[in-house]
């Protein structure tokens, strides 16, 4: 994704257009430029920049391709073009029922059947990017605040704030307890917002967490649910990495907790999901909002008019995801492959003398380079990041771009490359660490 | 959960669906026409869809299996396409869209693929352009009658206001620069002057089906340049022109207006109407303003076109032979349908606005109104839905200031259904004449009838236009549903 240099406008645009809240001037994106200019290629450019800043899942494409080859009916655009006309005309914002059913069923499978999802509550959007923005428009007014635990996905700065005018107030987490959300941190964030005269409308968590690569524990989820209930605010649970948990038993979705309590206070809870990470299909723009609140479902559905999923894509995925034999095999295999990658990178880093947060999910690990900092502050972290980028030629994401309150942590993606490339990256880190010792 | 725990936007009515005008869609949903299974059902004539050329697209799809990443021919490309989420879009897709836009304008304009920005349908494009150009509380001038869903697309989440510039039947609803100037001046007056940021026009027009003449378009370009405000041209019906005059696009006219500030000019496009592919959600913003291109592109993250769809369309739209054939054939078929309807209606004494584009025509039923009021229009409309069993769209839902006009879509049905529809209208008109005759005494009746016929004859030179989407039942609102404004809401402007 190339970064654009904003030209000076001759006629005034809107305040939203002029603001920096699209967030692209963050170092999170600056590394991309270096990568774009000098991308690693095993054959043609073995000394190029290895992209480790992109949370993509490329480990399971073969299964998808295999499915398609065996199931020509998945495409209405193939030889027979059956049902083409109906599909091409279909623009109902409810979305294809078959697709909603397939999504609901897929979400149930990912949670091991521990939570049920009603297809009538599935609202479709073009990506989780749109889902998060849409929910923010519905739950908060301009100037209001959402509480978000740090470190968090840098894109939230744009998705939650840019066009909505809503503020993010951080819930500070730190390494002393593996960056878990504590009741104290929740209260502190709420009070912080109040002291700034901001009305808090909700808490947004990512479970499993990006960038931590770890699931939120049941006890913490229950705390958070208690907190939002006491404050009478909303809870958004972004669960887009739920299918990327290495071991199924370790993921607890807020949906499970609600179900176990007979859905008490469920109307304040909304789940965001997407196929960009678990299925590795970010190009298809498939996002969904699952809300237990009827009014939110209705309003979100209306708003989804601005961001519907292509009917062509809905049809393909409806076919694929309603094949339960395929999906259960996919989920299991994908998990195993991600775990293998994770183990590989953790061991490799350990051998180089680098520790990571103990993770159990996601497409990245949360690496601790604080011992290497010249200065134990943000500047020191950015200096180290530049070294990683320009000397080691590895594009990794500095914790400061994720609003981490402790300097020295980095998010390192491992699922968007081949195993060989990962070996090369680990070798570069190893060499660097060796040199440092000397 | 208490109601106030949602945002003002969520609890506002600006999504437009709470309108009293849902009867038409409800009636259709409950009792949809089917030639064999339900021949007495309601015929849908309120949906501006282009269904006349699917056979051509289907044939292309069958012949080009490699364009789909799901077929064995195409699956080698699957991975690369599936991971592609760059908001610039596939270069070949942008090139193909630029080419299509050029073809639709008869090759008179060149489009730069680097200015092609994606959005979630034209619905997304119109909203995004507002986010780029205006702040909450700012206003855009909008000639009426206009597509009802503008009320949602331009206003709902953006907080932007619309100032209608009413066009009149006295000059065939044409936009005049005088009216535009007057509306602009008026908006600056009073205790709460509006901050007008621009003007949005639809060319070809929905619901009128007419194209703007060159002089007026030049005048509008001059107007916005003088006031230093933006001009957004929604040209989503550009390839539905079926008879002369050909479309004069703002891109063409820009070159002819001396000192035109290109930074003020923006085009909205889509494949939903011209190509009949609304399900694919292909909206395009084409701006001559670099900062707007840059901003809109970043915002397109909220509504990108599926890469699977981009890939397919890149292939289809760059097939020059196919596109040429499609545009020609589509125009031919639209012309045929249009003539079938308008001539048929003329024979019954019903006139329509002379039109040359679109998927609908603007029908004049003023002679059938009991009185020239919107209440009477609604009454007539209910009769048309419930008795004649046609879902057409009342002019008030397009903010037309004169009661009695209806938008009728003609491109979303087969030939047989067209006949049925015409027969029903014929029967209805005859019944109405009979009714009028029976109610009055000899003298007054005859005079009334003659007047009505005379009025009609004067308008026989008008032709009719295509379909449109107007009212949908709440549970099935499509993104292109025009949301009608109740007369009460409209009355305040």
From TrEMBL, chain A:
Pfam families: Aminotran_1_2 (PF00155). Keywords: Pyridoxal phosphate. CDD domains: AAT_like. PROSITE patterns: AA_TRANSFER_CLASS_1. InterPro entries: Aminotransferase_I/II_large (IPR004839), Ethylene_sulfur-biosynth (IPR050478), NHTrfase_class1_PyrdxlP-BS (IPR004838), PyrdxlP-dep_Trfase (IPR015424), PyrdxlP-dep_Trfase_major (IPR015421), PyrdxlP-dep_Trfase_small (IPR015422). Residues 50-429 form the Aminotransferase class I/classII large domain. GO terms for molecular function: 1-aminocyclopropane-1-carboxylate synthase activity; pyridoxal phosphate binding; transaminase activity. Belongs to the class-I pyridoxal-phosphate-dependent aminotransferase family. This is 1-aminocyclopropane-1-carboxylate synthase 7-like. The lineage of its organism: Eukaryota, Viridiplantae, Streptophyta, Embryophyta, Tracheophyta.
From TrEMBL, chain B:
Pfam families: Aminotran_1_2. Keywords: Pyridoxal phosphate. InterPro entries: Aminotransferase_I/II_large, Ethylene_sulfur-biosynth, NHTrfase_class1_PyrdxlP-BS, PyrdxlP-dep_Trfase, PyrdxlP-dep_Trfase_major, PyrdxlP-dep_Trfase_small. The keyword Plastid does not apply. Residues 43-425 form the Aminotransferase class I/classII large domain. Residues 468-493 are annotated as: Disordered. GO terms for molecular function: 1-aminocyclopropane-1-carboxylate synthase activity; pyridoxal phosphate binding; transaminase activity. It comes from the Eukaryota. Belongs to the class-I pyridoxal-phosphate-dependent aminotransferase family. This is 1-aminocyclopropane-1-carboxylate synthase-like. It comes from Punica granatum. The gene is LOC116203043.
């Amino acid at each position: 994704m190339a970064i654009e240099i904003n030209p000076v406008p001759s006629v005034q645009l809107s305040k939203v257009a002029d603001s920096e809240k699209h967030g692209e001037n963050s170092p999170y994106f600056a590394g991309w430029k270096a990568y774009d200019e000098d991308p690693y290629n095993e054959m043609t450019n073995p000394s190029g920049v290895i992209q480790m800043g992109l949370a993509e899942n490329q480990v399971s494409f073969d299964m998808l391709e295999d499915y398609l080859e065996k199931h020509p009916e998945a495409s209405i655009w193939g030889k027979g073009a059956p049902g083409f006309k109906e599909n091409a005309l279909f623009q109902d914002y409810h979305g294809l029922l078959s697709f909603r059913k397939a999504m609901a069923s897929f979400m149930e499978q990912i949670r091991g059947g521990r939570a049920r999802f009603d297809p009538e509550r599935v609202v479709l959007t073009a990506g989780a990017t749109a889902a998060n923005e849409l929910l923010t428009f519905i739950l908060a007014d301009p100037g209001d605040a959402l509480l978000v635990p740090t470190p968090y996905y840098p894109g939230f700065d744009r998705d939650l704030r840019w066009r909505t005018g809503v503020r993010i107030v951080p819930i500070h987490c730190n390494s002393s307890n593996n960056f878990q959300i504590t009741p104290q941190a929740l209260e502190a964030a709420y009070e912080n917002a109040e002291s700034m005269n901001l009305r808090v409308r909700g808490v947004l968590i990512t479970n499993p967490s990006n960038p931590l690569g770890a699931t939120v524990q049941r006890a913490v989820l229950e705390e958070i649910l208690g907190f939002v209930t006491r404050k009478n605010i909303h809870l958004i649970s972004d669960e887009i990495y739920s299918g990327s948990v290495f071991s199924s038993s370790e993921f607890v979705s807020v949906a499970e907790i609600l179900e176990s309590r007979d859905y008490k206070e469920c109307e304040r809870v909304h789940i965001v999901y997407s196929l960009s990470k678990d299925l590795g299909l970010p190009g298809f723009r498939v996002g969904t909002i699952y809300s237990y609140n009827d009014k939110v479902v209705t309003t979100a559905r209306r708003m989804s008019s601005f961001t519907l999923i292509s009917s062509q894509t809905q049809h393909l995925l409806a076919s694929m995801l309603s094949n339960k034999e395929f999906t259960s095999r996919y989920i299991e295999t994908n998990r195993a492959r991600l775990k293998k990658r994770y183990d590989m990178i953790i061991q490799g880093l350990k051998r180089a003398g680098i520790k990571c947060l103990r993770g159990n999910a996601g497409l990245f690990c949360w690496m601790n380079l604080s011992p290497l900092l010249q200065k134990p502050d943000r500047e020191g972290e950015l200096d180290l990041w530049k070294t990683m980028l320009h000397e080691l030629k590895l594009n990794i994401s500095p914790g400061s771009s994720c609003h981490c309150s402790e300097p020295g942590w980095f998010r390192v993606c491992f699922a968007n490359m081949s195993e060989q490339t990962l070996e090369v990256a680990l070798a570069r880190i190893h060499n660097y660490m060796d040199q440092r010792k000397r | 959960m208490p109601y106030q725990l949602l945002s003002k936007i969520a609890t506002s009515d600006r999504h437009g669906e709470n309108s009293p005008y849902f009867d038409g869609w409800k009636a259709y949903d409950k009792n949809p026409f089917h030639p064999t299974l339900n021949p007495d059902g309601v015929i849908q004539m309120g949906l501006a869809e282009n269904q006349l050329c699917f056979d051509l697209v289907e044939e292309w799809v069958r012949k080009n299996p490699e364009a789909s990443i799901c077929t064995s021919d195409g699956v080698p490309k699957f991975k690369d396409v599936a991971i592609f989420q760059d908001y610039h879009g596939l270069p070949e897709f942008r090139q193909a869209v630029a080419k299509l836009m050029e073809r639709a304008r008869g090759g008179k304009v060149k489009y730069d693929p680097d200015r092609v920005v994606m959005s979630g349908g034209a619905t997304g494009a119109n909203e995004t352009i507002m986010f780029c150009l205006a702040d909450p509380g700012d206003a855009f001038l909008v000639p009426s009658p206009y597509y009802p869903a503008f009320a949602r697309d331009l206003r709902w989440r953006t907080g932007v206001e619309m100032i209608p510039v009413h066009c009149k039947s006295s000059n065939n609803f044409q936009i005049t620069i005088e009216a535009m100037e007057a509306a602009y001046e008026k908006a600056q007056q009073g205790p709460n002057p509006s901050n007008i940021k621009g003007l949005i026009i639809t060319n070809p027009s929905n619901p009128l089906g007419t194209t703007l003449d060159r002089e007026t378009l030049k005048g509008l370009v001059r107007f916005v340049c003088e006031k230093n405000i933006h001009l957004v041209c929604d040209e989503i019906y550009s390839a539905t022109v079926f008879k002369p005059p050909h479309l004069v696009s703002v891109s063409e006219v820009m070159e002819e207006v001396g000192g035109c500030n290109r930074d003020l000019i923006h085009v909205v496009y889509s494949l939903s109407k011209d190509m009949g592919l609304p399900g694919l959600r292909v909206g395009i913003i084409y701006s001559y303003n670099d900062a707007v291109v840059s901003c809109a592109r970043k915002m397109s993250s909220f509504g990108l076109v599926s890469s699977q769809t981009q890939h397919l369309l890149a292939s289809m739209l760059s097939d020059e032979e196919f596109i040429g054939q499609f545009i020609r054939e589509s125009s031919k078929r639209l012309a045929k349908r249009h003539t079938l309807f308008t001539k048929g209606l003329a024979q019954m004494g019903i006139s329509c606005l002379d039109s040359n584009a679109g998927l609908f025509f603007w029908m004049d039923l003023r002679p059938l109104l009991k009185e020239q009021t919107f209440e009477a229009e609604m009454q007539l409309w209910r009769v048309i839905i419930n008795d004649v069993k046609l879902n057409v769209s009342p002019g008030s839902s397009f903010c037309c200031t004169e009661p009695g006009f209806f938008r009728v879509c003609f491109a979303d049905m087969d030939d047989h259904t067209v006949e049925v529809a015409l027969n029903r209208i014929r029967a209805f008109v005859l019944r109405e004449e009979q009714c009028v005759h029976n109610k009055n005494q000899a003298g007054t009746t005859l005079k009334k009838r003659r007047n009505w016929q005379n009025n009609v004859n004067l308008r026989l030179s008008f032709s009719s236009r295509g379909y449109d989407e107007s009212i949908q039942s709440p549970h099935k609102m499509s993104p292109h549903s025009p949301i009608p404004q109740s007369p009460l809401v409209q009355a305040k402007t």
